[in-house]
Amino acid sequence: MDRNLPSKMLDYSDLCSQAFSQQQHLLTHRKEKPFVCDVCNKAFFRKGLLKTHLLTHTHEKPYVCDTCNKAFYDKPSLKKHLQTHTGEKPFECDVCNKAFFRKSDLKIHLRTHTNEKPFVCAMCKKAFSAKSHLKRHFLIHTKEKPFSCDICNKAFSLRSTLRKHLLTHTDGALSEKAFSEKSNLRTQSPTHSRHLSARSKEKTFVCDICNKAFSQRPHLAAHMRTHTKEKPFTCDICDKAFSEKTNLRRHLLIHTKEKMYTCDICNKAFSLQANLRRHLLSHTKEKLHICDICNKAFSLPSNLKRHLLTHTKK
User: Fold this and answer.
1) What is the pTM of this model?
2) How far lies 19's CA from each of 10, 29, 45, 115, 123, in Å?
3) pLDDT category, 12, cuts 50, 70, 90?
């Protein structure tokens, strides 16, 4: 199949017995994410999602609440926030009558009555009632510290720990507004946002060895390790070392048994996106790898390689 997908009607019945007029919908089946962030390399299905994500780098929040002036990156977040002013809580607990803004919050709350904790950490077996709690806990194992203090640059795994730390710089009292400002979460002006966006596209950091240029110093530092062969990120479980933190994070999925990439056709799950892509070929019957000797076609290069041995043995 041509990888340059046409914009008109596409018959992709091998996937789910329906035709697709939208290129984007087909990408969701193939788990392809062609829109990549220049700043952090995160990939997305749709251009709109990338556009919204870029605002997290520029700190631009274009959706503002008319009541309290709180700003948000996207429209759904603003819509959700507006319920806090209307007091509307349509989702009520049958056990204790506590009401919630969101259905997902009610679902998590119900587990406090059932003591159900379906999300278990594969590394230390600690269980959690919500996936977000497990995710937050997992930062302890990955040693990732995404929350930095703007005053002394100390980094923390949890936002709540950063908040506690900020009190050491203040007189002990820290309002919500002060926390937002000190933790660099405030809304930037549109002019400043545009400036940051333009800056993020400039490639001012150049590799001395191969002259490849990067928009951010950390990206250059990561690239330099391809030359030095340095691998500073080590797995605590099996001691395997990696040159990039993202590769270590991906590797940890092997130990946690977490499989976040699911086939929409047969529901088989995979820990890596590449494995899902390879698996999807079994549904599409697409065979791109052809034997030069007998023209037999294969969906995977490994299968072709194995097949070629049958010719060499003759």
Assistant:
1) 0.33
2) 6, 12, 19, 44, 43
3) very low
